[in-house]
Amino acid sequence: MNVQREIAPNLTATVGYIGSHGVHMLIRGDDGNMVLPTKTSAGYLWPYNPPNAAGQTKDLRVNPNFGGIRFMSFGTSASYEALQLNVQKRMSHGFQFGGSYTYSKAMDDSSATIAGDAFSNSVTSWFWFAPDISHAPSDFDVRHSSAINGIWQVPVSPSLHGPAAAVLRGWELGGVLKMNSGIPTTPLIGGDPLGVQNSGSDAFSIPNRIPGRDPVNHNFKSNPGGVFLGYINYNAFELPKATPEIASQCVPFGFSPAGSRNPNPGIPGTCSNLIGNAGRNSIVGPGLFNLDFSTHKDFAVPKISESFKVQF
User: Fold this and answer.
1) CA distances from 214 to 18, 220, 283 (A)
2) What is the pLDDT of residues 24-79, one digit of tens each?
3) pLDDT digits over 261-303, tens only?
4) What is the number of helices (H) and of strands (E) in the chain?
């Protein structure tokens, strides 16, 4: 839906709303043969399966005689809403201007369908069995997007003639300014700490988000004390915690039993087989600022036609 109004001669403004909602959409499961978790008050908890002295765990796949079983189901939803503003000034008095701004919100359970997610900021395939922790900003969600463009015809006195007029007339200055907010990404714990024994491509876990801490360093380009901060604030995350309800079913991070080459009780109070609460696409990346500037000159060629010009 769009509403357009002429504010002044050669100047128009447009306000628009776009909305869409999809249900029963495709999602690809990376491995239907993987062991599934139990939903507890602390989150999704995978079975207690500590390594033995040889560093091996029990094979908990649904059918150990088969490898990964990839599949697709119609079990996701997606939505998009956007408010669009646009202002256009047509060329008059040697000046042309245009500006647009979009505030949008794209949400889904998975931004991929048949193939793995093509976005470099995404997880190839999310937890297909847990829509309550999957519904989040889309991998391509850009909340704020704006663009400004303009052309200015450099004025020259009409009394100017001869070589000076040929050199000074016909110049135009133009520019396009583009500003976008960043795209989201997901904090991950590598390896297979959950023990999902996924023979597909996505064996990972999610950390906990510490309340009250910003997940990004906004001054990430600085290096206080010679230390480069990096964009992600790692102090805003922690390993999933073993709550009293599930403590007896948790395998601590770094655990290695007695009799192994490097026995270790693990990190106390942690639970490697519990998925954290940081969530999918919970970190928004840095924005984009881009400016293109142009200078060009039009040379009139009246011998061909009155409107024919060569641009340099």
Assistant:
1) 31, 12, 9
2) 988 877 778 888 899 999 999 999 988 888 878 888 888 888 887 888 888 889 99
3) 888 999 999 999 999 999 999 999 999 999 999 998 887 777 6
4) 2, 15
